[in-house]
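Forum: Protein Structure Q&A
Topic: Joint prediction for protein chains with partners

I've read a bunch of threads here and the consensus seems to be that you should model interacting components together rather than docking separate models afterwards. I'd like to see that in practice. Below is the full input, 782 residues plus whatever partners are listed. Could one of the regulars post the assembled result?
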Amino acid sequence: MTNISTDKVRLGIIGLGAQGSTYARFISTGMVPNMEIGAICEPDPSKADLLRTEYSGVPFFTDYIEMLDSGEVDAVVTCVPHYLHPEMGIYALQRGVHALVEKPAGVYTKQVAELNAFAATKPDLTFAIMFNQRNNPLYQRIKQIVDSGEIGRIRRTNWIITTWWRPQGYYDQSAWRATWGGEGGGVLVNQAPHQLDLWQWICGIPRSVYAKVAYGFRRDIAVEDEVTAVVDYGDGATGTFVTATHDLVGTDRFEILGDNGKIVVENSKTATVTRLKRPERDISDGMDMQDVQRLFTGQLKTDDYYTTEVIEFESPWGAQHAGVLENFAANIQDGTALLAPGSDGINGVRLANAIHLSSWTGKEIPLDFDEDDYLIELNKRIREEGKFPER
Amino acid sequence: MTNISTDKVRLGIIGLGAQGSTYARFISTGMVPNMEIGAICEPDPSKADLLRTEYSGVPFFTDYIEMLDSGEVDAVVTCVPHYLHPEMGIYALQRGVHALVEKPAGVYTKQVAELNAFAATKPDLTFAIMFNQRNNPLYQRIKQIVDSGEIGRIRRTNWIITTWWRPQGYYDQSAWRATWGGEGGGVLVNQAPHQLDLWQWICGIPRSVYAKVAYGFRRDIAVEDEVTAVVDYGDGATGTFVTATHDLVGTDRFEILGDNGKIVVENSKTATVTRLKRPERDISDGMDMQDVQRLFTGQLKTDDYYTTEVIEFESPWGAQHAGVLENFAANIQDGTALLAPGSDGINGVRLANAIHLSSWTGKEIPLDFDEDDYLIELNKRIREEGKFPER
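Posted by a regular:
Agreed with the consensus. Here's the joint model:
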């Protein structure tokens, strides 16, 4: 179905807001060699002029279904409010158009599960999600280290990620932002989905979560701007995840402790990897009382027990997103493995939903919670808000 | 009652283990100018020889009550297993002897409340606790910054403190260690009490706690070697506290976010203090859409919004403990304000008890939990363990 004359995947961009116009620029400036802009869909007429001058010659639609049916696009990316991702993904796949959904895959797991179930019936079509951070070489390397067993079974994970300060004016930009009915949540659905994904991608999916969430804590918004969650991996291992949008001097510090080592990632830029020369439990068991004495008097050399490596990569802005677009197109073209299969998108949504549910009920929530329970609670908040229809 | 000939407070040291012998050395080498060793009480006869050679001339007792009644001491310090601190404190005060209890003040709040209640009936006697970290100039400065309101009302606190790696041999040193009946807990009662105290001393007492605690997780012990707790301050502010004894490459990172600034303490050594030039909420509210745009394109200069100060102090080993001993003696002599009044000891015990209770019940526990509930649960574990009498 790809354009025979150029062999490039013709992408239809749905929504030319901040994200959609960025992707358009990446493609039009050649950052995604196996892709071209097939068409653009933007319902806002005020943006039409910009489109026609900047992307002259590119077919323009105000209705994305018309674009899907036009034959101008092989694939689409959904740069629209989160609630719309699942239905747009389904409509695209129904019409034989490959789908790259923006993060989060949706707002509530029930709709994302429907998307995944439908996508599973279309194995010949490519279904992916824009988890550009999976294309960050630093996180790829960390996943590799953890997956290979170099630091052993995980004991504990802790991530404080508050580097997305958002002033009140950001929230006041549009009526759907930071509302239950329009956006479906705050920092968990807008800013943190990448980290909610990476955390599970690297460390595994927890069994349950307990969370304290503050809604409109330091911003005039209905949704959450402060989250503290503790997860239980079911084998004694635990984790914490802290995020907020009101920390002007944000923190980004991710720590993973394993049986055979430790990784500390600072500012998503520098990872300090400690590899023990023997499993920690063996070191502990192998020390006699004299060693213990030496330990407490500072006479044990830590170098005898571990090595330390500091890892940093250059990751210029844009390269991650462009790389995901390229990987998506390559999967369409020749079956190159996807960095972020679309079906993975549900994990972060499930964790975000469980965090909300825990804060609403005051209980620890299993990750396999009843998805109808979440929707009922979400609709309750949409109803009280009174601005958007229930889901 | 102090020794008229020297004007020094004559301290009776109860227990000449690691801690007691350290204090004896501090005093005998003149690190505590207003104190002298009045007597030593050590029930273990194998230590008697050491005592007689190293502290010749110092009265020696095997029964601490006899020492209290001997007239040789003005004050005592209780360097004995945690369960004994409250009763020894009470017996000393009953006999008109000033009491410095080791940390933790006790194992369960009920016994510590009894100690506090009794001490309150003896206002003329000095009752203090060995929270030597309160004598760390770095934490004193941080408390001063927080108390003065420089960083505003607290929004969030996070402490990961895992810098006390303990090999199995440490736990196997004595029969009471890391047992329910002999020690009453693991990392929460032995290693972390200083941080449980500092955390509340600086950031205030939380309203409730929810915790995941792993017992004998990576050590062959009955008690906890891994703790993840989330606290709720009752006003939307939250905190986390993570501690463990099996992290060979320990982390010590304490972060306090306030309405007007932030403090990050690393390794109990370096504090990075950010002071906002205006309250964060004002900065947020004062930004128009153009500022928001500039923010996202990296055109806002952070220097316009805050200043950063890095604070470090020298705190040579021993100075903190010696300083607490000196402050205790000074309070006896001339009423100098106590760094760590004995009655403060209950706060950390209460938090440790609440963390245990939460993990045992799977529920969020208010800090004013019923202290009988805790003792019932603790005794259940002592009974199952079958090594020590119930309390």
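The radius of gyration of chain B is 23 Å.
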